Amino acid sequence: MHSVIAKLRGHAQDGIENTQGEFGKLLSLSPLSVKLDEDPTPLEPYELSVLRSARLMQEDVGKKVALFRCNNEQYLLLGVVE
Question: What whole-number distance in Å separates Cα of residue 13 and Cα of residue 9?
């Protein structure tokens, strides 16, 4: 049991250390498209997941958004930066 808990704890710690915050520009909602500040190529819709509370609207297109880069090569879009 202790080894299982230690293994889970290690994976959780790796996820926290390897997750980085990034910023980008919301290009469109449908299909969802974001261009990261550090990368000129827009992310594909399958690379993005949206935080439920983000509540993105059409008027947010063109605004700066905050994202987390995750271990699974996806990005979690947190919402518009004020």
Answer: 6
